[in-house]
Amino acid sequence: MPRPRFQNAPEELRNGILTAATKEFGRRGYEGASLNRIIATAGLSKGSFYYYFDDKADLAATALAQATSSLMATLDLTAIVDQASFWTTMEHFQRKSLEPLAHDPSQLELVGKLGRAYVDHPELAAKVLPLVSDYLSLAMSAWRRGQEVGAVRRDLSVEVLMAVMSGTKEALLKVQLPRDGLLTLEEIDRLASLLFDFFRRLVAPPERALEKEAV
Predict the structure, then answer these.
(1) Do residues 168 and 198 touch, judged by C-beta distance below 8 A?
(2) N or C: which end of the chain has fewer CB within 10 A?
């Protein structure tokens, strides 16, 4: 994660670094991105860059976390009062999470390229996780609320369920995300729908899953 002094740096400098990083990672991906190009575009020296970040993975994780930071505002736990409202809320959250990408092509490129790298590069995933801890805590609270209203199975802990969903997501992304080129927003939407369907089937109470198969 970025060093504390990055958060204390002037907003203009922080925005300049992250804008340069977003464009470079979005155009060339994680492996192809040039740290020297990012540094030059942002108007930094190498010394000043390492004053704020440890390495390229640190910067990529920060850019990716910023691109997804708005998601927390779209998950309203107070709207979950029963099983139907739980799934409606979670699906709404998933759809809303795509909106920023629709309005900013550079963010779409960044999330597409670094989303693939997140699966392939453990060092990047390790840098991202601490930056999205608040989001993960909120998501965990949502799944716990799902258990309370009977929408989510209770024979397994939320921690186990989220680990299973995370593994499922990584497996699907490895197959669905292209190594070259980008998914369109429509393709991302279809992938999100597929993931949502997988998650819903995975976490449904056992008796309800059996009822669905019988139908």
Answers:
(1) yes
(2) C
Say what the pLDDT of residue 156 is.
94
Query: Model's pTM, two decimal places?
Result: 0.70
Does the pLDDT value for residue 24 go beyond 60? yes
More confident residue, 136 or 145: 145
Domain 70-214 has CATH 1.10.357: yes
- Report the alpha-carbon distance of residue 122 to residue 124 in Å, rounded: 5
Homologous superfamily of the 4-62 domain (CATH): Homeodomain-like (1.10.10.60)
Q: Where are the alpha helices (DSSP H) in the chain?
A: 4-7, 11-32, 35-41, 46-52, 56-67, 83-96, 99-103, 105-120, 122-131, 133-148, 158-176, 185-203, 206-214
The residue ranges of every structural domain in the chain are 4-62, 70-214
Q: In this structure, what token pair is assigned to residue 11?
A: 């907003």
